[in-house]
Amino acid sequence: MENEQRPRVLVYDSVEAHCLDCLYEVADVDIQPDLTEAELMAAIGEYDALIVGPPRRLTGRMIEQGYRLQAIGYAASRLDNVDVSAARAMGIEVFNAPASSAVAIAEQTLSQLLLLADRFGNGRLAGKTLGLVGFGRIGQQVAQRARAFNMRVLANQPRLTPELALAAGVQAVDLLDLLREADFTSLHLPFNAETKTILGQAEIRAMRPGACLINTGHAELLDSGALLAGLENGNLAGAALFVHPSEMHDALDTAVILLRQHSHVLTTPYQTTIIDSNHADALREISEHIADVLSAEKASSLLSLQVVPINQVSPHEEVDDKRVARLMAAIGNNPQLIDPPIAVYWNGRYVILDGATRFTAFKRLGFEHMIFQIVDTTPESFTLHTWYHAISSERPFADLLTHLQQLDGILFEELPPGKTQSIFQDKSVLCYFLARNGRITLAKTAPGAVHLDVMNDLVASYTSWGTVERTLLTDLPRLLEQFPRLTAVAIFPQFAPETVFDVASRGGFVPAGLTRFVIPGRILRLNMKLDRLLENDTLAAKRTWFKKQLAQKIASSRLRYYEEPVVLLDD
Predict the structure, then answer these.
(1) At what angle do helices 273-295 and 539-555 cross, to 10 degrees?
(2) How far is Cα 282 from Cα 98, in angstroms, rounded to an integer?
(3) How far apart are CA 450 and CA 256, in angstroms?
(4) Is the distance from CB of 513 to CB of 470 less than 8 angstroms?
(5) 3-state secondary structure of 536
(6) Which of 74, 221, 333, 494 has the smallest CB count inside 10 Å?
(7) Quick count: other Cβ atoms within 10 Å of Cβ 25?
């Protein structure tokens, strides 16, 4: 019976069993590298985790069959062959080993630097300038080793990254400036439409006389004919090229063939013994992550707390920049999360229900990951209240109406007293205004105007005109008692949660101050120090760290879990 209760892991890759030792301790492991696509789809539903090795592909159609899957591990540095969105939509964690080959390629790059310096230079790297085109994981590893050789390091990244901006001893420069100054230029870029022939004729002609070039990536990152010409005319001293397996079998043009045969060109097969050995390291790394997922206590899922990428998070309304600035100042140099923001997962995005100010403050402080309480979208998981807006001023409603009539895309209509029932069945209705004298004015979207855009403009307009406070009252005497300077109250239709989620997941906003989600069972006073989330580490590693921290809190009973609804009107 004990074996029947153990999780099952399918390994769709050729592996050595010792690479999976940590998995054998917590799960039953089946190694089946030769399955066809149809066989994989038929079998995947029986497993709790899946490990796949390159070059195999995992499409969304395949992943959808794995209804029991908790985790997918891809034994490579990139996830190009995995439909990550499909996996995340099903709540499946996806792991890879992004640094598994970076160190090996960086070391190979340094070995080529030494060979080029020995054969075509004065044999020294110290004091020379290395230009790195691309500053991802490999580029960073190369820079670290080059600095140990006392080299000056320049770097160019198509888009400036925090890693490049903050890298010690590395100077960010334009591409042409790098080429003019570098004694050695090394390419560390993925091959795509943006980087194809990033070094063309003009760029290669701009290279410093006597310079050497290293290309660890795809042959089409550079103009092979221009590089060949630079070597032939003596402007360039030498080059080192990493030859990928696919490029050895493809039909190559004459320039590429002549370039690889040139006496001043060193060619290195990309799949060296060093790099091949990293496949085993990658398997060990992702096996540890999956073992952690399968063996960890269910505390994090019970409490619905997750570490999520900030770039996948969408607020559903705009935030007050002044409140964000105050919170950023309060966080200061000791980042700590007291009450986690709350979100739902919808259309591939985490849509914030509560805590947009906290989220924005941490995002602007440079966090790439943040802890959220994730609730599902079932009716019992939350209640959505739609607020009304009490607009106060010393000026009369006629002045407010004149102000609002300047907006484009809105039609206003007077209603007789008591004729407000069922008006929201008309989907063009934005809201109606109940003035302090009992006057009722309907606001509708004009034909051709975008309903949500017009609603945002309307709320922003009367917010700038008077003082706006939220209320659930529609009874005029009680409103006047609570808001003595009331000019009018804007009464809106109830939002459907799906409408809010759809808008936010597409990058839009509903008007600020209209929605309030009440979440029963929300988590407060997490009091989690967040220094670890600022580190340059993988999402998987941060999630592992957080699970351990959360387990410790639960064990010491320092976590407070509220079963009853809690309404917080301020962040």
Answers:
(1) 30
(2) 8
(3) 55
(4) yes
(5) coil
(6) 333
(7) 10
Query: Residue type for 214, please?
Result: I
Q: Give me 569's structure tokens.
A: 């009107």
**What are the backbone angles phi and psi of residue 92, rounded to the nearest 5°?**
-90, 130
Whole-number Å distance between alpha carbons of 256 and 224:
6
For 10-159, where are the alpha helices, taking DSSP H only? 21-24, 37-43, 60-63, 84-89, 102-120, 137-148
At 384, list the tokens: 């959505």
CA-closest candidate to residue 283, choices 29, 36, 4: 29
Distance CA 427, CA 454 (A): 13
What pLDDT, in 10s, does the model give residues 259-271? Answer: 999 999 999 876 5
Distance, CA of 36 to CA of 57 (rounded, Å) = 11
Do residues 350 and 343 touch, judged by C-beta distance below 8 A?
A: yes
Higher pLDDT among residues 288 and 207, named by residue:
207
Q: What is the largest distance, in Å, between two alpha-carbon atoms of the chain?
A: 94
Structure tokens at 410: 């809105």
Between the CA of residue 1 and those of 6, 26, 128, 485, what are the distances in Å?
9, 15, 66, 72
In order of their start, the domains of the chain are: 2-96+279-295 (3.40.50.720), 102-263 (3.40.50.720), 300-383+517-566 (3.90.1530.10), 388-491 (no CATH)
Q: Using alpha carbons, select from 375, 367, 305, 369 the residue that is nearest to residue 345.
A: 375
Give the 3-state secondary structure of residue 543: helix
Please tell me the distance from the alpha carbon of residue 120 to that of residue 212, in angstroms, as a whole number: 8
pLDDT tens track for 151-186 = 999 999 877 666 676 677 899 999 999 999 999 999
| Ordered DSSP codes for 445-465 | EPTTS-HHHHHHHHHHHHHHH
- Give the list of residues 6+ apart from residue 173 with CB closer than 8 angstroms, or none: 154, 155, 156, 181
Residues 452 and 299: their CA atoms lie apart, in Å, by: 39
Beta bridge partners of 370: 308
**What residues have CB less than 8 Å from 323, skipping those under 6 apart?**
357, 571
Q: Output the six-digit token pair for 127.
A: 């004091």
* Cα–Cα nearest to 26, from 357, 365, 296, 412: 296
Burial profile 453-469: b = 16 or more Cβ within 10 angstroms, e = fewer: ebbbbbbeebeebbebe
Q: What is the 3-state secondary structure (H, E, C) of 215-284?
A: ECCCHHHECHHHHHHHHHCCCEEEEEEEECHHHHHCCCCHHHHHHHHCCCEEEEECCCHHHHHHHHHHHH
Phi/psi of residue 242, nearest 5 degrees:
-90, 125
Q: How far apart are CA 535 and CA 542, in angstroms?
A: 9
**d(C-alpha 146, C-alpha 183), whole Å:** 13
Mark residue 270 as left, alpha or beta (left: phi above 0; alpha: psi -120 to 50; beta: remaining).
Answer: alpha
Considering the entire predicted model, what is its pTM?
0.49
Q: What is the pLDDT of residues 389-443, one digit of tens each?
A: 999 999 999 999 999 999 999 999 998 877 777 888 888 999 999 999 999 999 9
Please check whether residue 113 is in contact with residue 184, taking contact to mean a CB–CB distance below 8 angstroms. Answer: yes
Bridge partners, residue 411, by sequence: 444
8 A C-beta contact, residue 25 and residue 291: yes
Q: Considering the chain, what percentage of its residues have pLDDT values greater than 70?
A: 89
